[in-house]
Amino acid sequence: MKRKGLVTKETFGLIMRRYAQCRKTKEAIETFKKMEKFGMKNELSDYNRLIDTLSKTRHVQEAQQVFDEMKKKKRFMPDVKTYSILLEGWGEERNLEMV
């Protein structure tokens, strides 16, 4: 599959979303990390997709952890979209302290 190009970032996004919907956040994050093994470099948009997926499936704490890790490792600087995703997620959780 790796050589034929059958697996794309969209494929990984779909798998991450399905795991998150089944409350398997650990597997969703592991799937994200496996993208590099398939020759796909993680970009800011990929982090945003994972954070968005986790937030929309009511796993905002895990989304916050991914965000914090991203900033800590200084791989990417969060953009307006990243912050908007988190703000919306915490707002849905009714956690005004985190917003």
Automatic annotation (TrEMBL):
Query: Record's superkingdom?
Result: Eukaryota
Question: Is this entry keyworded Translocase?
Answer: no
PANTHER family according to UniProt = OS03G0856100 PROTEIN, PENTACOTRIPEPTIDE-REPEAT REGION OF PRORP DOMAIN-CONTAINING PROTEIN
The protein in question is named Pentatricopeptide repeat-containing protein
InterPro entries in the record: PPR_rpt, TPR-like_helical_dom_sf
Task: State the organism named in the record.
Answer: Coptis chinensis
Q: What is the lineage of its organism?
A: Eukaryota, Viridiplantae, Streptophyta, Embryophyta, Tracheophyta
Positions of PPR repeats: 8-42, 43-77
The answer on whether this UniProt entry bears the keyword Iron reads: no
Q: Which family does it belong to?
A: Belongs to the PPR family. P subfamily.
Q: Which UniProt keywords apply?
A: Repeat
